[in-house]
Amino acid sequence: MHATARAHTNIALIKYWGKKDDQLKLPCNSSLSMTLDAFYTETKLTILDADQPNRFYLNGQEQSLKASQRVVNYLRVLQERFNLSGNFLIESTNHVPTSAGLASSASAFAALAASFNAAYELNVDLTELSRIARLGSGSATRSVYGGFVEWQAGDSDENSIALPLAEHPKMDLTLLAVEIETAKKSISSTKGMNLVVETSPYYATWVEQAELNIGQMKMAIAANDFSAVGHLAQQNALAMHALNLTADPGFTYFQPETIRAMQLVAELNQNGVECYFTMDAGPNVKILTQLKNVEEIIQRFKNDLPHVKIVKATFGPGIEILDK
Ligand code: DP6
Q1: HEC profile of the chain
Q2: Mean pLDDT computed over every residue of the chain
Q3: Could you give the domains of the chain?
Q4: Ligand 1 center to residue 138 CA distance, Å?
């Protein structure tokens, strides 16, 4: 029994930042993302007899027991849920260049969930697939669908699910992933968000504001209003990163060049080149813009920050089963 699935990664325009349940990965606030065409993970999952050892290959390299643990533990959780048995051969290829500075956990766990579903012939629907992807990593919930996707926070395993808002949006929206640094991040997203939930006096305000942002973002998408989408995404990203400074101890993912990139975006706007930024749990900056401005932005970044790498992306599709 085996199956291969492809899942694309996504960038949150309204961020998930904090859980109310660690096991089920129930978020404190809803989030909204754009699935990206340029970055994806392909995973072949083969179900082995229980007397064969689990093996995990990432980009052709066999991974240590320790490195395989999160993946194997996740598949065990799914087996328990569906009352299944067997061991695993997991072969994953990440087409998420480290240079892009985008997290691969969203595409990794969405591809695992989909290959598990197909290999065991469970035939769960996409809503259930988003639930089981969530058990691997919160952001994977949204990678089940293409285009614009909402993850409704909910308050139980049942109702914390992703919904497609527009699988093939008409919006002229390009993302430029600007690599500031490829080194592994100092504080994982799991740790960072837990720390703010536990210690920031402003956490309740974040949740309130993020829920407001979700409504505003949905209106901006429905109106095909690029400027409103970009502005809201930037404000929400700034709020998440400001919140991190208010934790105890306070922390930041920014590096000096993150700030420089933010200033460049402001300067570009002053010169009539409309663009916005967003950042996740790391120093890299993702710029949101329209096709007509892409070349000018890349040129400007190359002049000011000559060593950074820039990767272009736009809307990508949801889960695909490649082979069964
Ligand atoms: C800043 O999904 O990586 O990218 O659920 O603990 O695995 P876990 O966290 P993860 O967090 C992503 C945080 C973010 C915002 C987002 O993608 O919504």
Answers
A1: CEEEEEEEEEEEEECCCCEEECCCCEECCCEEEEEEEEEEEEEEEEEECCCCCCEEEECCEECCHHHHHHHHHHHHHHHHHHCCCCEEEEEEEEECCHHHCCCCHHHHHHHHHHHHHHHCCCCCCHHHHHHHHHCCCHHHHHHHCCCEEEEECCCCCCCCEEEEEECCCCCCCEEEEEECCCCCCCCCHHHHHHHHHHHCCCHHHHHHHHHHHHHHHHHHHHCCCHHHHHHHHHHHHHHHHHHHHCCCCCCCCCCHHHHHHHHHHHHHHHCCCCEEEECCCCCCEEEEECHHHHHHHHHHHHHHCCCCEEEEECECCCCEEEEC
A2: 95
A3: 1-324 (3.30.230.10)
A4: 6
**Which of 135, 189, 244 is the pocket-test mutation for ligand 1 (most atoms within 8 Å of CB)?**
189
pTM listed for this prediction:
0.96
The pLDDT value given to residue 127: 98
Task: Looking at the CA of residue 136, tell me the nearest atom of ligand 1.
Answer: 7
pLDDT digits (tens, 9 = 90+) for 126-148: 999 999 999 999 999 999 999 99
| Pocket mutation for ligand 1, best pick of 14, 16, 29, 132 (most atoms within 8 Å of C-beta) | 16
Question: What pLDDT digit, counting tens, does each position of 182-238 carry?
Answer: 666 579 899 999 999 999 999 999 999 999 999 999 999 999 999 999 999 999 999
